[in-house]
Amino acid sequence: MPTSIIILILIAAIAALAFLLFKKTNEVKKFKGLLTKMKKAFNYLDDQAKMIVKTDVEINRAQEFLDKRLSALDTLQKTSRLISTTLDENEIFHRLKQALTTDLGFEKGLIFILDDKKNCNVRIASGLSEEEIFYITGRLEKETDLLNALKDGNTFSSPRSPFSIKEKILQIFQIEHFVLSPVLAQSGMIGAVFVGNKSNIALSDGDEEFISILANQIGQALENARLFDQVYSSSQLLELKVQERTRQLESALTEVKQISKTKSEFISAVSHELRTPLTSIKGYASILIAGKLGNVPDAVKQRLEKINIHSDNLVKLINDLLDISRIESGKVEMTMEKCRLSEMIDNVHDLLTPQIKEKSINWRMDVDPKIPDMFLDKQQAERIFINLIGNAIKFTPENGTISVKVILQDNNMVKAEVTDTGIGIPKDAITKLFDEFYRVENEINENVKGTGLGLPLAKKIVEAHGGSMWVTSKVGEGTSFHFTIPVKTEQ
Ligand code: ADP
């Protein structure tokens, strides 16, 4: 083979090889580019993975924090419900004990209350020995600066307190992580709540907030319990006083009853003693007036007639007195008979017509026709109307009006009213009006004689029939006497 051909073949082979080399170099370059891209992608993924892990740790931490807060809030809510549903101070501390010793999750806890002498009384303690408690209270009572700072409403905690306070609390309670919060009532600080953990379990801001809320609620619950206690003891005291007063009143009433009985007996005895000689005086005066013992000069006759009139007045007074005391002591015999009220009032009107006419008084009478005939002591019942209408005439000026109205009430009682347009009765006299011998000081009473026995007697007769009597009046306008009597249609 000629050399030129060999050379050509070699050149062609070299060219082919060079082409292949060029191609491979290009491919390698391409791979290199891909490799760099992949590396970048791996780096990016690595960063992302790191970030995910970091976020996960943070989420876990936040979750843990939230769980802790939630459980704290749950405990707070439960505790506050527990302590706000009792009004007994001891029970409040009893219910707080479990919260402080286990539920809240602090290693040490203490609640103390200040007594009247400003001594610290420990009501609940957990995680502290007797000696520690004794040491803490002893120190606390001397630390007036700290107590004053608490009194101002400050809560102190290890994460946030000033260094000096932190040091002091550390010395007293011998614990590094703590919250100390005052228990406040309206009167000021009444105690404090302390919680603490050892050096490796730090407290958060949330713990401070949580303990100060709890301390507030304890203050509220204690305040309520103490107020309730005060109210309860004053109500007890009041009840005792009421009982004592009732006893005093009862014994006073018995005494009054006894005095009234003695008075009635005395009046009754005196009246009897007076009536007999008075009857003789009247009898002798009548004999003398009639001239049965010889002629009597006119001047003597006139005096004898005066003796007669005064004796009559005295007999009337004595009879009224006797009746009052008899009714009061229940000694009076009621003679019940069927009476028609309209007839009874007509009779009284007839009896008093001369006086009514003399003063030109208008007479009105309105008796409900539905009122049945009722059983009454006729003579006594008549005296009620005689006294009331007689007074109405006496205290009503000329041309005035007197009306008598009687109605039948739904409760089977008759209600009678004797109303006049007379001078009226002053307010302060109304309460004494039914007292024996009481008469209002006025011009009419100065001129017209009276005993002050008519109204008490009328009232007693009404009461003896099972009713009641009262008066309404306006000075210058008139007076109404009202009384009720139960309707009895059978004996
Ligand atoms: P007396 O009429 O004998 O004084 P009473 O017991 O009947 O005694 O009355 C007591 C007093 O009540 C009277 O003195 C009078 O002051 C007052 N009084 C009674 N009825 C009336 C009346 N209708 N209007 C004004 N005052 C009256």
Could you provide a short overview of the structure?
With 491 residues, the protein is α+β, with helices and mostly antiparallel strands.
Quick one: how many beta strands?
Answer: 12
Bound molecules: adenosine-5'-diphosphate
- The portion of residues assigned to helices is 55-70%
Shape type: elongated
Give a written overview of the molecule.
Helices cover 61% and strands 16% of the residues. It has 491 residues and is α+β, with helices and mostly antiparallel strands. Among the domains are: 80-234, GAF domain (Beta-Lactamase, 2-Layer Sandwich), CATH 3.30.450; 336-486, Histidine kinase-like ATPase, C-terminal domain (Heat Shock Protein 90). The protein has a 5-stranded antiparallel beta sheet with strand order 2-1-5-4-3, sandwiched between helices. It starts with a helix and ends in a 5-residue tail after the last strand. 23% of the residues are buried. Bound molecules: adenosine-5'-diphosphate. Residues 387, 391-392, 395, 420, 422-423, 425, 433, 439-440, 445, 450-455, 479 line the site of adenosine-5'-diphosphate (ADP).
